[in-house]
């Protein structure tokens, strides 16, 4: 299927756009699942000012969605109406000064972790274990291996639906487990983190341990979206999502080419050719079985957007 082409309308409303704008762009190459329908309009802004120009000019009735590296995004097979903003090279800058790390929202978490480590800034190594980019990490208070974004964030900057810039302190982010309280229409563009003094060699060694753990316990080399469901017990608590999924007999469960990972059953994988509907339906079947066996309602961590 395809959507009506709205790129002409967008360019007329925002004639000074400098980024790329494409109609009915495929979404599958933008997500780690490599599945999903077309995007009505895909916009890759040149920088924050370019994005602000678009948002200020875009009619209110046109919805806006944002993607970074696409690690935890599933676009349904019917496609995504409106504009999908992709934060890419113009938002990938990383700089370290003292114990502070400045990062664009499109910067890969692993690259931020490495830049901090090489500069002797400890406390951000946990980002090595989080697939995706900084914008998504801010939006969901991402965490792994004993650390969370809330532990190291000083402030985040973003643009609202009208293109107005705002800065949010750590407290104003309203962090909780895998959640922040900033309005959903805010697109994060930049983050300031602060760590503590450390030895680069020791930090890099800790990151290597995380890499090794991930490669042996998670299906990192497959088409997957990272952790599918939030842990009901919170960070470090019990029960963990994978334990409930395993107890419900879902390890290895499949639908078409989509499967619950045999290696880590809180990961859904696309073995090639799975539709977004297959992946989402498999996740819902897992939720149903867990509900029936344990009474626990699993909450999706994967963002599912678009029409079926």
Automatic annotation (TrEMBL):
Localization per Swiss-Prot or TrEMBL: Cytoplasm
Cellular component terms (Gene Ontology): cytosol
EC numbers: 1.3.1.98
Gene Ontology biological-process annotations: cell division; cell wall organization; peptidoglycan biosynthetic process; regulation of cell shape
Compositionally biased residues, Polar residues: 216-230
Enzyme class: oxidoreductase
Active site: 178, 227 (proton donor), 301
Record GO terms (molecular function): FAD binding; UDP-N-acetylmuramate dehydrogenase activity
Region (Disordered): 214-237
Family membership: Belongs to the MurB family.
Summary of the function given for this chain in its UniProt record: Cell wall formation.
Protein's name in the database: UDP-N-acetylenolpyruvoylglucosamine reductase
Name of the encoding gene: murB
């Amino acid at each position: 299927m395809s959507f009506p082409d709205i790129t002409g309308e967008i360019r007329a409303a925002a004639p000074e756009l400098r980024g790329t704008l494409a109609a009915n762009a495929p979404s599958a190459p933008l997500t780690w699942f490599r599945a999903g329908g077309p995007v009505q309009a895909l916009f890759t802004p040149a920088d924050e000012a370019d994005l602000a120009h678009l948002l200020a000019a875009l009619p209110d009735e046109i919805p806006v969605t944002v993607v970074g590296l696409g690690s935890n995004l599933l676009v349904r097979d019917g496609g995504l109406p409106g504009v999908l903003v992709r934060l890419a090279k113009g938002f990938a800058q990383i700089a370290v000064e003292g114990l502070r790390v400045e990062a664009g929202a499109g910067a890969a978490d692993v690259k931020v972790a490495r830049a901090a480590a090489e500069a002797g800034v400890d406390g951000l190594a946990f980002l090595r274990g989080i697939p995706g980019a900084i914008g998504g990490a801010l939006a969901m208070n991402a965490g792994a291996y004993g650390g969370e974004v809330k532990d190291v964030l000083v402030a985040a900057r973003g643009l609202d639906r009208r293109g107005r810039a705002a800065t949010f302190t750590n407290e104003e982010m309203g962090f909780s487990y895998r959640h922040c309280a900033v309005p959903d229409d805010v697109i994060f563009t930049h983050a300031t983190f602060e760590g503590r003094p450390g030895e680069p060699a020791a930090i890099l060694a800790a990151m290597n341990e995380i890499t090794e753990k991930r490669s042996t316990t998670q299906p990192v080399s497959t088409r997957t979206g990272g952790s599918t469901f939030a842990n009901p017990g919170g960070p470090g608590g019990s029960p963990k999502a994978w334990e409930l999924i395993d107890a419900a007999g879902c390890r290895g469960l499949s639908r078409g080419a989509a499967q619950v990972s045999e290696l880590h059953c809180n990961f859904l994988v696309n073995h090639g050719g799975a539709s977004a509907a297959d992946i989402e339906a498999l996740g819902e079947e897992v939720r149903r079985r867990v509900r029936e066996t344990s009474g626990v309602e699993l909450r999706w961590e994967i963002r599912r957007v678009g029409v079926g």
